[in-house]
Amino acid sequence: MAMCLGQVFSKDKTFRPKKRFEPGTQRFELYKKAQASLKSGLDLRKVVQLPEGENINDWIAVHVVDFFNRINLIYGTMSEFCTEKSCPIMSGGLRYEYRWQDGEDYKRPTKLPALKYMNLLMDWIESLINNEDIFPTRVGVPFPKNFQQVCKKIVSRLFRVFVHVYIHHFDSICSMGAEAHINTCYKHYYYFITEFHLIDNSELQPLVSLWSRPLSYIQYQICARYKCGDSKKEHNIGNPLSNLNLYS
């Protein structure tokens, strides 16, 4: 039986404090508006559209912070299944590998276990969204000229979390009954980043190419990753994006 979101994403997990929007600010009102639209059952393609008269950078900031909070929560829930032994490389199946580079501690692209990569990623994003010079919260303080470029970098790296979780841990997601919640989060994320052209189509290929294949191929990929031995062995994994119709 599927559990509610509160049961799936609950205690005994290590999460960072959520970045919050201060009540009374324009961004807080935008956040409330976005959440109300999301819960109303409206078409997500319409939910992500910029409300008339609103500033696009404010709208992007609200969503980037919200996606960070939700994706951080998703990964925190999955982290017990993602160990250095199970996932020694941050990857998305057999074809895609992600290396970490931040220009400081890691000046060159470096292979890392998925768990360490994710922790560094969340630390990096948290430092950006808490930086008043990049995500200003004071009234009248403008966004920097490179604000959207920074957001593009953030959402492109957050996409890698979806890639890794879907390809390597979807069986665990299903066992917790959380697939519907994660699918909805991904669908919302996908429509938003494509609405505002925040990520190149080439970076979306790990999921586009995977879900365009037959289910037997998906099962083979997961078996190969977990060394199940028999690629024809049945797994109750389903197709996580089968009813999202994102790419048609």
UniProtKB/TrEMBL annotation:
Positions contributing to Zn(2+) binding: 82, 87, 164, 169
SMART domains, alphabetized: Mob1_phocein (SM01388)
Lineage: superkingdom: Eukaryota
Cross-referenced Pfam families: Mob1_phocein
Keyword terms: Metal-binding, Zinc
InterPro entries referenced in this protein's UniProt entry, alphabetically: MOB_kinase_act_fam, MOB_kinase_act_sf
PANTHER family the UniProt entry points to: MPS ONE BINDER KINASE ACTIVATOR-LIKE MOB
Name listed for the protein in its UniProt record: MOB kinase activator 3C
Species this protein is from: Mugilogobius chulae
Taxon lineage: Eukaryota, Metazoa, Chordata, Craniata, Vertebrata
